Amino acid sequence: MTVSTKINTGRFFEDFTLNEVIQHATPRTISTGDSALYIALTGSRNPLHCSEPFAQSLGYKTTPVDDLLAFHIAFGKTVPDISVNAVANLGYADVCFTQPVFVGDTLSTSSQVIGLKQNSNGKSGVVYVRSTAVNHRDEPVLSWVRWVMVHKNNVSAPAPETVIPELPGFVAPEHLNIPAYFSAKNFDHEATGGQYFWEDYQAGERIHHVAGMTINHGDHSLATRLYQNNARLHFDDFAMQSSSFGKRLVYGGVPISLCRALSFNGLENALSILAINAGTHANPSFAGDTIYTLTEVLDSWALPNRTDLGALRLRMVGIKNMSPGEITEIKSNGAYHQNVVLDLDYTVAMPRRGSN
Amino acid sequence: MTVSTKINTGRFFEDFTLNEVIQHATPRTISTGDSALYIALTGSRNPLHCSEPFAQSLGYKTTPVDDLLAFHIAFGKTVPDISVNAVANLGYADVCFTQPVFVGDTLSTSSQVIGLKQNSNGKSGVVYVRSTAVNHRDEPVLSWVRWVMVHKNNVSAPAPETVIPELPGFVAPEHLNIPAYFSAKNFDHEATGGQYFWEDYQAGERIHHVAGMTINHGDHSLATRLYQNNARLHFDDFAMQSSSFGKRLVYGGVPISLCRALSFNGLENALSILAINAGTHANPSFAGDTIYTLTEVLDSWALPNRTDLGALRLRMVGIKNMSPGEITEIKSNGAYHQNVVLDLDYTVAMPRRGSN
Amino acid sequence: MTVSTKINTGRFFEDFTLNEVIQHATPRTISTGDSALYIALTGSRNPLHCSEPFAQSLGYKTTPVDDLLAFHIAFGKTVPDISVNAVANLGYADVCFTQPVFVGDTLSTSSQVIGLKQNSNGKSGVVYVRSTAVNHRDEPVLSWVRWVMVHKNNVSAPAPETVIPELPGFVAPEHLNIPAYFSAKNFDHEATGGQYFWEDYQAGERIHHVAGMTINHGDHSLATRLYQNNARLHFDDFAMQSSSFGKRLVYGGVPISLCRALSFNGLENALSILAINAGTHANPSFAGDTIYTLTEVLDSWALPNRTDLGALRLRMVGIKNMSPGEITEIKSNGAYHQNVVLDLDYTVAMPRRGSN
Question: Which chains contact C through at least 3 pairs of Cβ atoms less than 8 Å apart?
Fold first, then answer.
């Protein structure tokens, strides 16, 4: 027997070239099965994603799939090409939800290398990519920038020219995409159970969401496989036993989705995510951890030509094994509190009081 | 930062008013994903809910979703408003399955307070509600009464007038709803694998179902989130560690569904649930418990104008970590055996011998 | 109370008669929920089963469901009648995938007893069955032979005449079924991410797939229930504690599916399974085991009248808790290495280089 060389070992730092475009494999047609699983995995209670009549009352032809389900599926496709040899996911920025995704849409993702910076140790480097997911009509549905630290395989490979992309601090209100057909004129707050509208949230307000969710191995494994994210460190306990963690890590998208679902109580009318301005996985999560969340209201924007909806810029902080009310300093001296797992700056659409 | 007061902490005993109607949030459109998950979570083998041709042979346009899936989804909506501060779910009664639920139907639930009784300790009370789930055509699909013990938040709040609703001991045969189109004339018992028909079951018969199902954390968490039931004690292990249980409790609907699925062997032709006459969660279940079940035949009723189907009133007893054949006294001196988790009195439709 | 005798205890060795045909219960309509769950349970990234446009580019009307999902669902139906009293699943042979299964198809399975051999101890025997799954148009979609060792209930029952069926060593290329409409003329290898085509694989090549997947209790329980396989030893931890294993066994189909999914990296263009020539569960798997896989290329066949596709006969070996590169002797002196869980000889269709 000859040992095959057909295994794709993934790209190392020296395999990325500035401006190259990588088409990722595994186009995926979204189904109602995906949406049902997403509810079962997160406990999401947002009626926009589970009630056809409610979605239709807002002008949608039917329920759009959860913004984060679309994100995780689109993201998962990039893993084999971008981050399978990553040391760390350093951050996200400029995540734009361009248009809703519906059951029956087929998502494909490509990524362009927009920045490269070799580390001073010469053993790894940071790769910046802009990834874009399109539907089967080749219309963009979402795009994002992320940067990851990737090992070099050949440490003697020359360092590329350092290029660090300029990234916006947040997606500006005028760049937010809201479908023209989406209207909150007929918004029924009994469907969300939320009594608070856009005008009721003020910058400087912090919401301590009460619910917590313990992550089971079954949960995060199912979720990460559903997203076709094949990063080994989430699945291979045998190999991870000899890692510095000693066990499997939870995919960082799992706490993002849990925090979004847990923050429903207090943000019931935050109907859809328009952008993720910035995101950091502050500390890893493991099975057995209980995730809590707090939200800080960062800003509140009226939207151009919109009297029915406004936007809120929110900071969603994921915390493990500690009540959100007990945490005072999320970050001090530039370092995250050890129980903080997620720091996500995002923007939501919310109906205005008296919109209807 | 100002700490927000927008969190919905749920109703306490003094927040319920006799006769008030509460519209619950989160309408839900049922999908094939929900049904697939229900099979994966329970192992149900009832062909009425998984075979279109079989369902059509009985007059249905397509497969109705499992009666208990519809129940759990409808029920889950009531939790944030009714039982999030409950000390205990004391019981169910008069659960009527009014008409089948199909994929594409959107369920909404409302509850009316039909009884109130403050406990003598002045710290809690019992709330009785009748909840009704309707589909998107506003037709009732199922209704039930339950009563829960709920904490008072303000112990000095005055006690309401005591009103205890009169509840039927069981749903009378003439109140059972069977769709007019449902006919067992073409019933094919090879599809269920069941050799026994309505005439073969006699009051006084006890069936020791052989199969057992161990509850995994992943299973009950997925199920309870699928039902959008957000009661914290099922999910938040960190908080539950300091409860008297020391760990998460399994949602009581999980053993109900497991017992129904486990009782398929012995009740293969119990095609659909017409009513739940009474139900008690006798003891809590935890992950790691193995659930078994036994059935006692309580009564057997011919149905008005029906030669194809009869009804059986059954008692389904859920038992943990003990073979059903070993239990002799389910209840003695008014107290349940410590291994009994469920005592459910329900009514099923079953084809009559020679119906076809 | 009278204890009922209505429980189906399953067939024992003496209950099988040569040539009898057993119609299994629980016809099942396949849904998109099943396919979504299959992805979540296995991490499969094969675009044929998750992308409608990709499937359509190959001539399919829509995505066929995963071959192994169809197999497990069809197989599960046989368990209550064939193997519920089995001591061991001894092997599979001549598994033919006759035509694709689509969402909406309803599968039913029947089995014919094609061989019987009582063991010399007189306490058990081997039963050979050919099982055939048909869709709702009564067209065969898949058939297989398996043989199981089954206990006798009545050890004094006479031994049947010994009949051992002749089974092909492999499904001959001329017996492989490829739909007439399936064409790789427009095959897009960017959708699979695979750079290697039929011509690139040579007999004698061994592929050490890098990924590993740890089996969680939640995973295998969900999968096995999804397949409506009710064999107690997969689910009932309480009973299994007093078995020789001391715990639940994982259904053998779970490692089959995991190995198929894990072998995607290295076999990206192995689009569909045409046959399983032989299969053995070499050792049991348990929750907590991490499954790895290696593939040996056994043979390479051009297909009659096909310039777009060829067939590869592969040996897929499932290994637990050991890197595939570390295993040298899969079997020595007729005994499997203790870490080998699966030895599966199967045939796939793969596009030819320059097919398009």
Answer: A, B
